[in-house]
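Need a sequence for this fold. Nothing fancy.
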């Protein structure tokens, strides 16, 4: 079958919306999904800076949601017409997958970033027959259709606006999961979020739902205003003595900090702002060496890396939807819709900070 997709052919060129083809339908354990909407994540855009490690040409997009139109058999647990949110791929067999930690799958990088499943190679091509890179995060959802492992797909209520739900599978999952799962934060705890983008604002919303006192640090006044609307105390990143301001507002120091910026100065500020036994979670990839200043890890303070919010998507996605329905996780306020043909405009707006979460509508 042929359909439209946004293809990235080089690390420098814009996306090209063109015809692509699936040379076969879903195999055992797979489903074909008609994409209703796909969020644009910073990880998609970071491919341009991946130093050639992510294979091209490729169809990116890993926050897809839509409707199942074909299944590879009864073992998928899904049926035609089911509405699904798509998330990251995992093998389902390694020790971490067996321990309900699929984000730390032994094959995570290979499946999601650097090649995909071997059985999918050469099944996905451009209209001329040129091979496209295997599925990005098991999806390649900047497209009208996506062929995905059924374990990637979380069934949701068909009455919901499925075109808006894709970001719950990655960006919003990561921020909320950091609060609920990685930190296990609750009433009486305090959290400082560094970077009020999609992941950071999801953490702020989750903190509010969990009864956690939240502070948000960012350079952009508009994003600080959003954080404040969601219940956080806004702190400009360029103000003097950031650690001191945080300590004063949290009665001696925050218990938790979540960094979404990969900025070494901000990471050191966050560590200095923690109370004894405080924890700093890192979600952004560090591209340079991280030099920690003396004393920042004293008195039981810890650093941990958080991938995909330590989430089992089949458990956390429904929880986030329930919170949204209750008015306690208003992620839809961060979304701006773009037609698939405007993928390059969406990328420019995202990089310029004009939109928090673009969602492409095929």
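Here you go.
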């Amino acid at each position: 079958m042929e359909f439209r997709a946004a293809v990235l052919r080089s690390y420098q060129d814009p996306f090209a919306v063109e015809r692509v083809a699936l040379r076969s339908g879903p195999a055992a354990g797979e489903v074909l999904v008609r994409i209703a909407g796909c969020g644009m994540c910073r990880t998609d855009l970071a491919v341009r800076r991946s130093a050639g490690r992510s294979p091209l040409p490729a169809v990116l997009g890993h926050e897809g949601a839509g409707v199942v139109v074909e299944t590879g058999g009864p073992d998928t647990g899904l049926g035609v017409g089911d509405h699904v949110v798509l998330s990251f791929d995992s093998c389902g067999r390694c020790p971490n997958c067996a321990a309900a930690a699929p984000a730390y799958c032994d094959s995570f990088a290979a499946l999601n970033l650097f090649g995909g499943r071997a059985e999918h190679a050469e099944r996905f091509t451009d209209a001329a027959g040129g091979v496209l890179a295997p599925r990005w995060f098991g999806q390649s959802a900047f497209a009208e259709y996506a062929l995905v492992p059924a374990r990637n797909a979380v069934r949701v209520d068909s009455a919901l606006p499925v075109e808006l739900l894709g970001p719950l599978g990655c960006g919003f999952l990561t921020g909320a999961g950091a609060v609920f799962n990685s930190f296990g934060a609750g009433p009486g705890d305090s959290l400082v979020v560094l970077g009020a983008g999609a992941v950071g604002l999801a953490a702020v919303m989750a903190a509010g739902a969990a009864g956690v006192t939240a502070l948000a640090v960012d350079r952009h006044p508009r994003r600080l205003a959003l954080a404040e609307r969601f219940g956080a105390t806004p702190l400009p990143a360029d103000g003097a003595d950031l650690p001191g301001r945080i300590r004063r507002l949290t009665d001696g120091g925050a218990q938790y900090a979540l960094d979404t910026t990969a900025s070494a100065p901000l990471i050191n500020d966050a560590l200095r702002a923690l109370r004894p036994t405080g924890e700093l979670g890192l979600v952004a990839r560090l591209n340079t060496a991280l030099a920690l200043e003396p004393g920042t890890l004293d008195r039981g303070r810890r650093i941990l890396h958080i991938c995909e919010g330590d989430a089992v998507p089949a458990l956390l996605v429904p929880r986030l939807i329930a919170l949204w329905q209750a008015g306690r996780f208003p992620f839809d306020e961060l979304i701006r819709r773009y037609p698939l043909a405007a993928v390059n405009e969406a990328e420019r707006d995202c990089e310029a900070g004009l939109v928090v979460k673009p969602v492409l509508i095929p």
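For context: The chain has a mean pLDDT of 94.
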